[in-house]
């Protein structure tokens, strides 16, 4: 999933840090075995998330929406040894795959993987987060954002995926329920005085919000 010309996307991929072998294998298995494999972040976005972690040096990350674990593993490998990423997903059918690749990565000491409804799990967590990555069901983006923001430290970041919605975000007449939810979320963040923000045109769009 990209808004860039295919040759430019290929060039960017060839000139970015390669994914580790276990992440390449996870991407292949996701594409072969999982419905809607385009939901995986991909190596370019994985690199971007890892670079954010290297730059920001967070100790505590929350990910809402694990899918097959690809983005969590990219971020976990960039975390310091005393860092932790908590990742939540409702799809228990993918649990064996996710846990297999967490074990294969040797990063299990940095990853807390929780199966459950994020709106029910998040209130039970008492952590303060340096960075949050939202990539789950689109109709609840605003609910996730509002729920987690009080637990983000001042100067911490919330990153939300898919905010350009396949390039259709400006074509309101084409948007269905998920696209309309993303458009509403983008407007909400844009008008939220609690954060400063920028929308990155990376892959399907990343909204980056910094808590003031």
Give an overview of the whole structure.
The protein is an alpha/beta fold. The chain has a single domain, classed as 3-Layer(aba) Sandwich (Rossmann fold). 39% of the residues lie in helices and 21% in strands. It has a 7-stranded mixed beta sheet, with helices on both faces. Helix 7 links the parallel strand 4 and strand 5. Helix 3 packs parallel to helix 4. The longest helix has 15 residues. The radius of gyration is 16 Å and the shape is globular. The chain starts with 5 loop residues before the first helix and ends with a strand. The model has no long low-confidence stretch (mean pLDDT 95).
Jot down its keywords.
alpha/beta, 7-stranded mixed sheet, Rossmann fold, single chain, 212 residues
Write the layout of secondary structure elements.
Elements: H1 6-14, H2 21-33, H3 42-56, E1 60-64, H4 70-78, E2 84-89, H5 95-105, E3 111-115, H6 118-121, E4 129-134, H7 141-148, E5 152-161, H8 177-190, E6 195-200, E7 206-211
Parallel strand pairs: 1-2, 1-4, 2-3, 4-5
Antiparallel strand pairs: 5-7, 6-7
Number of helix segments? 8
Structural class, please? alpha/beta
In CATH, what is the class? Alpha Beta
Hey, roughly how much beta strand do the residues contain? 15-25%
Question: How would you briefly describe this protein structure?
Answer:
With 212 residues, this protein is of the alpha/beta class.
């Amino acid at each position: 999933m990209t808004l860039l010309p295919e040759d430019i996307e290929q060039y960017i991929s060839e000139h970015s840090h390669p994914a580790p072998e276990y992440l390449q294998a996870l991407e292949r298995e996701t594409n072969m075995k999982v419905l809607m494999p385009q939901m995986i972040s991909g190596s370019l976005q994985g690199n971007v998330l890892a670079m954010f972690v290297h730059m920001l040096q967070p100790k505590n990350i929350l990910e809402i929406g694990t899918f097959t674990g690809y983005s969590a593993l990219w971020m976990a490998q960039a975390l310091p040894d005393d860092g932790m990423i908590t990742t939540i997903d409702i799809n228990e059918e993918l649990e064996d795959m996710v846990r297999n690749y967490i074990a294969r990565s040797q990063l299990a000491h940095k990853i807390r993987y929780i199966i459950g409804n994020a709106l029910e799990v998040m209130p039970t967590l008492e952590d303060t987060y340096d960075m949050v990555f939202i990539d789950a069901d689109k109709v609840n983006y605003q609910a996730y954002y509002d729920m987690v923001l009080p637990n983000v430290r001042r100067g911490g970041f919330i990153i939300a995926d898919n905010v350009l919605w396949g390039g259709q975000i400006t074509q309101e007449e084409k948007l269905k329920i998920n696209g309309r939810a993303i458009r509403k979320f983008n407007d909400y963040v844009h008008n939220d005085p609690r954060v400063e923000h920028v929308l990155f045109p990376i892959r399907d769009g990343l909204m980056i919000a910094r808590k003031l």
